[in-house]
Amino acid sequence: MEPLGHGVATSSYQIEGAVTADGRGPSIWDTFCALPGTVADGTNGSIACNSYSRLDDDVALIEGLGVSAYRFSIAWPRIQPTGSGAVESRGLDYYDRLVDALLSRGIRPFPTLYHWDLPQALEDAGGWPARDTALRFGDYAGHVAARLGDRVASWATMNEPWCTAFLGYAAGIHAPGRREPDAAYAAAHHLLLGHALGRDAVRAAVPAAEVGIVLNLAPVRAEDDADPAAVAFVDAVQNGIWLDPLVDGRYPDVLAPYTSPVVQDGDLAAVQGSADWVGVNYYTPFRIGRGDAGTRAVGQATAAYPYAPPFVFLPRRPRTDMGWEVDATGMTEVLLATARRLRDVPLRVTENGAAFADGQRTADGRVDDQDRIAFLRDHLDAVEQARQAGAPVLDYLAWSLLDNFEWAEGYRKTFGLVAVDPHTRDRTPKASYAWYAERARSGRPHTD
Ligand code: FCB
Fold first, then answer.
1. Residue 350 near ligand 1, beta carbon < 6 Å
2. Which domains, from first to last, does the chain contain?
Protein backbone atom coordinates (compact mmCIF):
# COMPACT_ATOMS: atom_id res chain seq x y z
CA MET A 1 0.00 0.00 0.00
CA GLU A 2 1.20 3.51 -0.85
CA PRO A 3 1.71 5.61 2.28
CA LEU A 4 -1.12 8.01 3.06
CA GLY A 5 -0.51 11.51 1.63
CA HIS A 6 -0.71 14.30 4.19
CA GLY A 7 -1.79 17.86 3.53
CA VAL A 8 -3.71 20.85 4.82
CA ALA A 9 -6.83 22.64 3.60
CA THR A 10 -8.32 26.15 3.49
CA SER A 11 -10.89 27.97 1.38
CA SER A 12 -10.91 31.29 -0.43
CA TYR A 13 -13.51 33.34 1.49
CA GLN A 14 -12.28 32.01 4.82
CA ILE A 15 -8.69 33.22 4.38
CA GLU A 16 -8.13 35.58 1.45
CA GLY A 17 -9.71 38.92 2.39
CA ALA A 18 -9.09 41.54 -0.33
CA VAL A 19 -12.69 41.29 -1.44
CA THR A 20 -12.50 44.24 -3.82
CA ALA A 21 -8.94 43.71 -5.09
CA ASP A 22 -8.07 43.15 -8.74
CA GLY A 23 -11.61 43.26 -10.04
CA ARG A 24 -13.19 40.70 -7.72
CA GLY A 25 -16.97 40.94 -7.76
CA PRO A 26 -19.17 40.52 -4.69
CA SER A 27 -20.12 37.02 -3.59
CA ILE A 28 -23.16 35.81 -1.69
CA TRP A 29 -21.03 35.63 1.47
CA ASP A 30 -20.16 39.35 1.27
CA THR A 31 -23.86 40.11 0.99
CA PHE A 32 -24.97 37.64 3.67
CA CYS A 33 -22.43 38.82 6.26
CA ALA A 34 -23.65 42.40 5.86
CA LEU A 35 -27.14 41.42 7.04
CA PRO A 36 -27.74 41.82 10.77
CA GLY A 37 -27.69 38.67 12.88
CA THR A 38 -26.22 36.32 10.29
CA VAL A 39 -22.70 35.86 11.74
CA ALA A 40 -22.35 35.17 15.47
CA ASP A 41 -19.67 37.80 16.14
CA GLY A 42 -20.84 40.25 13.48
CA THR A 43 -17.69 39.79 11.38
CA ASN A 44 -17.07 38.91 7.75
CA GLY A 45 -14.31 37.74 5.42
CA SER A 46 -13.33 41.14 4.06
CA ILE A 47 -9.85 40.89 5.60
CA ALA A 48 -9.89 37.34 7.04
CA CYS A 49 -6.28 36.06 7.19
CA ASN A 50 -5.27 38.46 4.43
CA SER A 51 -3.91 35.51 2.48
CA TYR A 52 -4.35 37.43 -0.76
CA SER A 53 -1.37 39.54 0.32
CA ARG A 54 0.37 36.90 2.41
CA LEU A 55 0.64 34.14 -0.13
CA ASP A 56 4.33 33.66 0.57
CA ASP A 57 3.76 33.39 4.34
CA ASP A 58 1.15 30.69 3.83
CA VAL A 59 3.29 28.70 1.42
CA ALA A 60 6.24 28.90 3.82
CA LEU A 61 4.03 27.51 6.60
CA ILE A 62 2.89 24.64 4.39
CA GLU A 63 6.49 23.94 3.42
CA GLY A 64 7.45 23.96 7.10
CA LEU A 65 4.91 21.21 7.75
CA GLY A 66 6.60 19.03 5.15
CA VAL A 67 3.24 17.95 3.75
CA SER A 68 2.74 16.86 0.17
CA ALA A 69 -0.51 18.66 -0.74
CA TYR A 70 -2.38 21.93 -0.20
CA ARG A 71 -6.13 22.06 -0.74
CA PHE A 72 -7.30 25.62 -1.42
CA SER A 73 -10.29 26.99 -3.25
CA ILE A 74 -10.65 29.37 -6.14
CA ALA A 75 -12.98 32.33 -5.68
CA TRP A 76 -15.32 32.34 -8.66
CA PRO A 77 -15.98 36.13 -8.33
CA ARG A 78 -12.24 36.77 -8.78
CA ILE A 79 -12.32 34.91 -12.10
CA GLN A 80 -15.71 36.08 -13.40
CA PRO A 81 -16.86 39.00 -11.24
CA THR A 82 -20.50 38.55 -12.25
CA GLY A 83 -20.33 34.78 -12.70
CA SER A 84 -20.33 34.74 -16.48
CA GLY A 85 -18.63 36.35 -19.42
CA ALA A 86 -15.12 37.71 -19.65
CA VAL A 87 -12.37 36.39 -17.44
CA GLU A 88 -10.60 38.74 -15.00
CA SER A 89 -7.03 37.67 -15.57
CA ARG A 90 -5.73 39.46 -12.45
CA GLY A 91 -7.82 37.06 -10.35
CA LEU A 92 -6.35 34.09 -12.15
CA ASP A 93 -2.86 35.54 -11.71
CA TYR A 94 -3.14 35.10 -7.94
CA TYR A 95 -3.88 31.36 -8.21
CA ASP A 96 -1.24 31.04 -10.90
CA ARG A 97 1.35 32.43 -8.48
CA LEU A 98 0.07 30.18 -5.70
CA VAL A 99 0.33 27.08 -7.89
CA ASP A 100 3.86 27.95 -8.94
CA ALA A 101 4.95 28.73 -5.38
CA LEU A 102 3.61 25.37 -4.21
CA LEU A 103 5.16 23.39 -7.05
CA SER A 104 8.56 25.00 -6.56
CA ARG A 105 8.53 23.61 -3.02
CA GLY A 106 7.36 20.14 -4.01
CA ILE A 107 3.79 20.65 -2.73
CA ARG A 108 0.90 19.39 -4.88
CA PRO A 109 -1.71 22.12 -5.57
CA PHE A 110 -5.15 20.73 -5.05
CA PRO A 111 -7.82 23.31 -5.94
CA THR A 112 -11.54 23.23 -5.22
CA LEU A 113 -13.51 25.22 -7.76
CA TYR A 114 -16.49 26.06 -5.55
CA HIS A 115 -16.25 26.52 -1.81
CA TRP A 116 -19.44 28.55 -1.38
CA ASP A 117 -18.53 31.99 -2.72
CA LEU A 118 -21.09 32.25 -5.53
CA PRO A 119 -20.93 35.51 -7.51
CA GLN A 120 -23.79 37.65 -6.20
CA ALA A 121 -25.00 38.34 -9.73
CA LEU A 122 -25.76 34.64 -10.18
CA GLU A 123 -27.73 34.56 -6.94
CA ASP A 124 -29.65 37.60 -8.18
CA ALA A 125 -30.51 35.54 -11.25
CA GLY A 126 -31.85 32.68 -9.08
CA GLY A 127 -28.78 31.05 -7.52
CA TRP A 128 -28.33 27.29 -7.35
CA PRO A 129 -32.07 26.57 -7.53
CA ALA A 130 -31.82 27.92 -11.11
CA ARG A 131 -30.49 25.47 -13.68
CA ASP A 132 -28.47 28.12 -15.46
CA THR A 133 -26.09 28.37 -12.47
CA ALA A 134 -24.90 24.81 -13.19
CA LEU A 135 -24.19 25.76 -16.80
CA ARG A 136 -22.33 28.90 -15.71
CA PHE A 137 -20.25 26.77 -13.32
CA GLY A 138 -19.21 24.49 -16.17
CA ASP A 139 -18.08 27.50 -18.15
CA TYR A 140 -16.12 28.92 -15.21
CA ALA A 141 -14.44 25.56 -14.54
CA GLY A 142 -13.23 25.45 -18.12
CA HIS A 143 -11.64 28.91 -17.84
CA VAL A 144 -9.75 27.98 -14.69
CA ALA A 145 -8.58 24.66 -16.09
CA ALA A 146 -7.37 26.35 -19.27
CA ARG A 147 -5.07 28.55 -17.18
CA LEU A 148 -3.87 26.17 -14.45
CA GLY A 149 -4.36 22.75 -16.04
CA ASP A 150 -0.81 22.44 -17.32
CA ARG A 151 0.32 22.26 -13.69
CA VAL A 152 -2.67 20.88 -11.78
CA ALA A 153 -3.61 17.21 -12.03
CA SER A 154 -6.30 16.75 -9.33
CA TRP A 155 -9.34 18.99 -9.08
CA ALA A 156 -12.42 19.17 -6.89
CA THR A 157 -15.59 20.72 -8.23
CA MET A 158 -17.95 21.37 -5.30
CA ASN A 159 -17.23 21.54 -1.59
CA GLU A 160 -19.99 20.08 0.59
CA PRO A 161 -22.98 20.68 -1.66
CA TRP A 162 -25.16 19.64 1.30
CA CYS A 163 -24.22 22.88 3.07
CA THR A 164 -24.85 25.02 0.01
CA ALA A 165 -28.23 23.45 -0.71
CA PHE A 166 -29.63 22.83 2.77
CA LEU A 167 -27.94 25.39 5.03
CA GLY A 168 -28.04 28.04 2.31
CA TYR A 169 -31.50 27.54 0.80
CA ALA A 170 -33.52 25.61 3.44
CA ALA A 171 -32.26 26.47 6.95
CA GLY A 172 -31.03 29.90 5.82
CA ILE A 173 -28.07 29.91 8.23
CA HIS A 174 -25.50 30.10 5.42
CA ALA A 175 -25.48 32.41 2.40
CA PRO A 176 -27.70 33.28 0.66
CA GLY A 177 -29.92 32.81 3.72
CA ARG A 178 -33.07 31.62 1.94
CA ARG A 179 -35.65 29.43 3.68
CA GLU A 180 -37.28 27.64 0.78
CA PRO A 181 -37.43 23.86 1.16
CA ASP A 182 -38.23 23.10 -2.47
CA ALA A 183 -35.48 25.42 -3.68
CA ALA A 184 -32.99 23.48 -1.55
CA TYR A 185 -33.75 20.24 -3.39
CA ALA A 186 -33.50 22.06 -6.71
CA ALA A 187 -30.14 23.46 -5.59
CA ALA A 188 -28.91 19.98 -4.65
CA HIS A 189 -29.67 18.69 -8.13
CA HIS A 190 -28.07 21.65 -9.87
CA LEU A 191 -24.94 21.32 -7.72
CA LEU A 192 -24.59 17.71 -8.87
CA LEU A 193 -25.27 18.71 -12.46
CA GLY A 194 -22.74 21.55 -12.11
CA HIS A 195 -20.21 19.05 -10.82
CA ALA A 196 -20.73 16.84 -13.88
CA LEU A 197 -20.50 19.80 -16.29
CA GLY A 198 -17.46 21.13 -14.46
CA ARG A 199 -15.73 17.79 -14.71
CA ASP A 200 -16.40 17.65 -18.46
CA ALA A 201 -15.02 21.17 -18.87
CA VAL A 202 -11.86 20.46 -16.88
CA ARG A 203 -11.27 17.28 -18.84
CA ALA A 204 -11.85 19.03 -22.14
CA ALA A 205 -9.02 21.40 -21.20
CA VAL A 206 -6.85 18.78 -19.47
CA PRO A 207 -7.68 15.26 -20.64
CA ALA A 208 -5.59 13.55 -17.95
CA ALA A 209 -7.11 15.53 -15.05
CA GLU A 210 -8.78 13.67 -12.21
CA VAL A 211 -11.90 15.51 -11.11
CA GLY A 212 -13.73 14.70 -7.91
CA ILE A 213 -16.38 16.10 -5.60
CA VAL A 214 -16.08 16.80 -1.87
CA LEU A 215 -18.97 15.63 0.32
CA ASN A 216 -19.65 15.99 4.02
CA LEU A 217 -20.78 12.44 4.58
CA ALA A 218 -21.63 11.22 8.05
CA PRO A 219 -22.61 8.00 9.75
CA VAL A 220 -26.20 8.46 10.94
CA ARG A 221 -26.78 6.68 14.24
CA ALA A 222 -30.16 5.97 15.79
CA GLU A 223 -30.86 6.35 19.50
CA ASP A 224 -33.20 3.68 20.91
CA ASP A 225 -36.24 5.90 20.69
CA ALA A 226 -35.52 7.20 17.19
CA ASP A 227 -38.16 7.08 14.48
CA PRO A 228 -36.64 4.80 11.80
CA ALA A 229 -38.28 6.88 9.09
CA ALA A 230 -36.56 10.02 10.39
CA VAL A 231 -33.20 8.24 10.56
CA ALA A 232 -33.57 6.97 6.99
CA PHE A 233 -34.61 10.44 5.78
CA VAL A 234 -31.64 12.19 7.40
CA ASP A 235 -29.30 9.56 5.92
CA ALA A 236 -30.85 10.17 2.49
CA VAL A 237 -30.44 13.98 2.68
CA GLN A 238 -26.92 13.80 4.09
CA ASN A 239 -25.44 10.90 2.15
CA GLY A 240 -27.74 9.20 -0.35
CA ILE A 241 -28.73 12.35 -2.24
CA TRP A 242 -25.13 12.60 -3.51
CA LEU A 243 -23.91 9.02 -3.57
CA ASP A 244 -26.97 7.41 -5.17
CA PRO A 245 -26.95 9.63 -8.28
CA LEU A 246 -23.15 9.35 -8.56
CA VAL A 247 -23.20 5.56 -8.31
CA ASP A 248 -26.60 4.47 -9.63
CA GLY A 249 -27.87 7.51 -11.54
CA ARG A 250 -30.96 7.91 -9.35
CA TYR A 251 -32.09 9.74 -6.22
CA PRO A 252 -33.13 7.88 -3.07
CA ASP A 253 -36.83 6.95 -3.39
CA VAL A 254 -37.75 8.97 -0.33
CA LEU A 255 -36.37 12.15 -1.96
CA ALA A 256 -37.50 11.62 -5.55
CA PRO A 257 -40.74 13.63 -5.03
CA TYR A 258 -38.63 16.68 -4.17
CA THR A 259 -35.92 16.36 -6.80
CA SER A 260 -38.03 15.20 -9.74
CA PRO A 261 -39.49 18.65 -10.58
CA VAL A 262 -36.07 19.85 -11.74
CA VAL A 263 -34.46 16.67 -13.14
CA GLN A 264 -34.32 16.75 -16.94
CA ASP A 265 -33.67 13.90 -19.36
CA GLY A 266 -30.00 13.03 -19.44
CA ASP A 267 -29.06 14.79 -16.19
CA LEU A 268 -28.72 11.67 -14.10
CA ALA A 269 -26.85 9.85 -16.84
CA ALA A 270 -24.38 12.75 -16.82
CA VAL A 271 -23.99 12.58 -13.04
CA GLN A 272 -23.65 8.80 -12.82
CA GLY A 273 -19.99 7.80 -12.74
CA SER A 274 -18.84 11.44 -12.93
CA ALA A 275 -16.51 11.42 -9.92
CA ASP A 276 -12.94 10.25 -10.59
CA TRP A 277 -12.43 10.39 -6.83
CA VAL A 278 -14.60 11.37 -3.88
CA GLY A 279 -13.52 13.62 -1.02
CA VAL A 280 -14.94 12.90 2.40
CA ASN A 281 -15.09 15.70 4.96
CA TYR A 282 -15.65 14.01 8.30
CA TYR A 283 -16.04 15.82 11.61
CA THR A 284 -18.72 14.00 13.63
CA PRO A 285 -21.30 11.25 13.52
CA PHE A 286 -24.98 12.27 13.57
CA ARG A 287 -26.98 10.80 16.42
CA ILE A 288 -30.73 10.94 15.95
CA GLY A 289 -33.44 10.77 18.61
CA ARG A 290 -37.17 11.25 18.63
CA GLY A 291 -38.20 14.87 18.28
CA ASP A 292 -40.25 16.48 20.96
CA ALA A 293 -42.60 18.34 18.62
CA GLY A 294 -42.48 22.09 18.96
CA THR A 295 -39.05 22.40 20.57
CA ARG A 296 -36.47 24.68 19.04
CA ALA A 297 -34.13 21.77 18.40
CA VAL A 298 -36.72 20.08 16.23
CA GLY A 299 -37.28 23.23 14.25
CA GLN A 300 -33.57 23.76 13.61
CA ALA A 301 -32.98 20.17 12.67
CA THR A 302 -35.92 19.80 10.35
CA ALA A 303 -35.21 23.12 8.65
CA ALA A 304 -32.01 21.69 7.17
CA TYR A 305 -33.73 18.37 6.32
CA PRO A 306 -36.95 19.60 4.72
CA TYR A 307 -39.91 17.20 4.87
CA ALA A 308 -38.15 14.86 7.35
CA PRO A 309 -40.31 13.35 10.12
CA PRO A 310 -39.61 15.14 13.45
CA PHE A 311 -36.27 14.31 15.10
CA VAL A 312 -33.53 15.87 17.20
CA PHE A 313 -29.74 15.68 17.09
CA LEU A 314 -28.33 14.30 20.34
CA PRO A 315 -24.54 14.71 20.22
CA ARG A 316 -22.82 12.88 23.08
CA ARG A 317 -19.74 14.03 24.95
CA PRO A 318 -16.91 14.78 24.48
CA ARG A 319 -17.67 17.61 22.09
CA THR A 320 -15.57 20.20 20.31
CA ASP A 321 -16.10 23.93 20.60
CA MET A 322 -18.61 23.62 17.74
CA GLY A 323 -20.71 21.28 19.90
CA TRP A 324 -19.85 18.39 17.58
CA GLU A 325 -19.50 14.94 19.19
CA VAL A 326 -15.95 13.60 19.00
CA ASP A 327 -15.89 10.03 17.70
CA ALA A 328 -13.03 8.81 15.55
CA THR A 329 -14.73 5.45 14.95
CA GLY A 330 -17.11 7.38 12.71
CA MET A 331 -14.17 8.17 10.41
CA THR A 332 -13.39 4.49 9.87
CA GLU A 333 -17.08 3.73 9.48
CA VAL A 334 -17.80 6.46 6.92
CA LEU A 335 -14.71 5.61 4.84
CA LEU A 336 -15.51 1.90 4.74
CA ALA A 337 -19.18 2.52 3.94
CA THR A 338 -18.30 5.01 1.19
CA ALA A 339 -15.67 2.68 -0.26
CA ARG A 340 -18.22 -0.15 -0.43
CA ARG A 341 -20.76 2.12 -2.07
CA LEU A 342 -18.34 3.57 -4.65
CA ARG A 343 -16.54 0.32 -5.33
CA ASP A 344 -13.23 1.21 -6.99
CA VAL A 345 -13.41 5.01 -6.82
CA PRO A 346 -10.47 6.37 -4.79
CA LEU A 347 -11.23 8.41 -1.69
CA ARG A 348 -9.54 11.34 0.00
CA VAL A 349 -10.20 12.75 3.43
CA THR A 350 -10.45 16.32 2.20
CA GLU A 351 -11.20 17.82 5.64
CA ASN A 352 -10.96 16.72 9.25
CA GLY A 353 -10.09 18.73 12.32
CA ALA A 354 -11.49 20.36 15.41
CA ALA A 355 -12.33 23.73 16.92
CA PHE A 356 -11.11 24.06 20.49
CA ALA A 357 -10.89 27.12 22.69
CA ASP A 358 -7.06 27.15 22.55
CA GLY A 359 -6.65 28.60 26.05
CA GLN A 360 -3.50 26.70 27.12
CA ARG A 361 -0.13 28.30 26.38
CA THR A 362 3.41 26.95 26.26
CA ALA A 363 6.18 28.70 28.23
CA ASP A 364 7.00 30.80 25.14
CA GLY A 365 3.37 31.87 24.76
CA ARG A 366 2.30 29.57 21.93
CA VAL A 367 -1.02 27.74 21.85
CA ASP A 368 -0.55 24.33 23.48
CA ASP A 369 -3.50 22.55 21.83
CA GLN A 370 -3.15 19.03 23.18
CA ASP A 371 -6.90 18.46 22.61
CA ARG A 372 -6.47 19.16 18.88
CA ILE A 373 -3.42 16.89 18.73
CA ALA A 374 -5.39 14.04 20.32
CA PHE A 375 -8.25 14.63 17.88
CA LEU A 376 -5.98 14.58 14.84
CA ARG A 377 -4.04 11.56 16.08
CA ASP A 378 -7.17 9.50 16.75
CA HIS A 379 -8.73 10.42 13.41
CA LEU A 380 -5.54 9.75 11.45
CA ASP A 381 -5.30 6.37 13.14
CA ALA A 382 -8.93 5.77 12.18
CA VAL A 383 -8.08 6.56 8.55
CA GLU A 384 -5.20 4.07 8.67
CA GLN A 385 -7.60 1.46 10.06
CA ALA A 386 -9.99 2.02 7.17
CA ARG A 387 -7.07 1.63 4.75
CA GLN A 388 -5.99 -1.60 6.42
CA ALA A 389 -9.56 -2.85 5.99
CA GLY A 390 -9.43 -2.07 2.27
CA ALA A 391 -10.74 1.50 1.81
CA PRO A 392 -8.71 3.13 -1.02
CA VAL A 393 -7.91 6.40 0.79
CA LEU A 394 -5.14 8.36 -0.94
CA ASP A 395 -4.77 11.51 1.16
CA TYR A 396 -5.66 13.17 4.45
CA LEU A 397 -6.01 16.97 4.44
CA ALA A 398 -6.26 18.55 7.87
CA TRP A 399 -8.74 21.39 8.36
CA SER A 400 -7.20 23.88 8.66
CA LEU A 401 -3.80 25.41 8.06
CA LEU A 402 -4.96 28.67 9.69
CA ASP A 403 -7.51 29.93 12.18
CA ASN A 404 -9.96 31.58 9.80
CA PHE A 405 -13.46 32.92 9.15
CA GLU A 406 -15.69 30.06 10.26
CA TRP A 407 -18.81 31.12 8.33
CA ALA A 408 -21.84 31.81 10.55
CA GLU A 409 -19.62 31.40 13.63
CA GLY A 410 -17.20 34.17 12.63
CA TYR A 411 -13.67 34.08 14.08
CA ARG A 412 -14.52 32.62 17.48
CA LYS A 413 -14.22 28.98 16.43
CA THR A 414 -10.60 28.13 15.75
CA PHE A 415 -9.61 25.08 13.68
CA GLY A 416 -6.07 26.10 12.70
CA LEU A 417 -2.71 24.43 13.16
CA VAL A 418 -1.54 28.03 13.06
CA ALA A 419 -3.01 30.90 15.10
CA VAL A 420 -3.67 34.19 13.30
CA ASP A 421 -3.50 37.43 15.26
CA PRO A 422 -6.85 39.19 14.80
CA HIS A 423 -5.19 42.62 14.48
CA THR A 424 -1.86 42.07 12.74
CA ARG A 425 -2.74 38.79 10.96
CA ASP A 426 0.65 37.51 12.03
CA ARG A 427 0.81 33.72 12.03
CA THR A 428 2.05 31.65 14.99
CA PRO A 429 2.20 27.86 14.74
CA LYS A 430 0.46 25.96 17.56
CA ALA A 431 1.76 22.77 19.20
CA SER A 432 -0.44 20.81 16.77
CA TYR A 433 1.58 22.23 13.84
CA ALA A 434 4.79 20.62 15.10
CA TRP A 435 2.93 17.43 15.93
CA TYR A 436 1.37 17.20 12.47
CA ALA A 437 4.70 17.91 10.79
CA GLU A 438 6.22 14.96 12.63
CA ARG A 439 3.30 12.70 11.84
CA ALA A 440 3.43 13.64 8.15
CA ARG A 441 7.19 13.01 8.12
CA SER A 442 7.13 9.63 9.82
CA GLY A 443 3.71 8.57 8.52
CA ARG A 444 3.60 6.46 11.62
CA PRO A 445 0.25 5.42 13.04
CA HIS A 446 -0.01 5.87 16.77
CA THR A 447 0.64 2.54 18.46
CA ASP A 448 0.36 2.78 22.25
C1 FCB B 1 -16.74 22.45 6.63
C2 FCB B 1 -16.35 23.48 5.60
C3 FCB B 1 -15.10 24.24 5.93
C4 FCB B 1 -14.97 24.52 7.40
C5 FCB B 1 -15.21 23.29 8.23
C6 FCB B 1 -15.09 23.50 9.70
O7 FCB B 1 -18.11 22.26 6.60
O8 FCB B 1 -16.17 22.86 4.35
O9 FCB B 1 -15.09 25.38 5.13
O10 FCB B 1 -15.76 25.58 7.74
O11 FCB B 1 -16.48 22.78 7.96
1. no
2. 5-442 (3.20.20.80)
Q: How far is the CA of 124 from the centre of ligand 1 (A)?
A: 25
Q: Is the CB of 351 within 6 Å of ligand 1?
A: yes
Taking only the tens of pLDDT, the chain with its 448 residues reads 899 999 999 999 999 999 999 999 999 999 999 999 999 999 999 999 999 999 999 999 999 999 999 999 999 999 999 999 999 999 999 999 999 999 999 999 999 999 999 999 999 999 999 999 999 999 999 999 999 999 999 999 999 999 999 999 999 999 999 999 999 999 999 999 999 999 999 999 999 999 999 999 999 999 999 999 999 999 999 999 999 999 999 999 999 999 999 999 999 999 999 999 999 999 999 999 986 655 555 556 679 999 999 899 999 999 999 999 999 999 999 999 999 999 989 999 999 999 999 999 999 899 999 999 999 999 999 999 999 999 999 999 999 999 999 999 999 999 999 999 999 999 999 999 999 999 999 987 644 4
3 state SS of 64:
helix
Question: What beta strand segments (E) does 115-180 contain?
Answer: 154-159
Asked if residues 387 and 393 have their Cβ atoms less than 8 Å apart, the reply is yes
Helix (H) or strand (E) holding 419: strand 418-420
**Rounded to 5 degrees, what angle do the CA atoms 30, 35, 37 make?**
120
* Cβ of 251 less than 6 Å from ligand 1: no
pTM, entire model: 0.97
**In this structure, what DSSP letter does residue 3 have?**
P
Q: Sign of the CA dihedral 371, 372, 373, 376?
A: positive
CB neighbour class for 321 (10 Å; exposed up to 12, middle 13-18, buried from 19): middle
All residues at 6 or more sequence positions from 11 whose CB lies less than 8 Å from its CB, including other chains? 72, 73, 112, 115, 116, 159
Using CA atoms, how far apart are residues 306 and 118, in angstroms rounded to an integer? 23
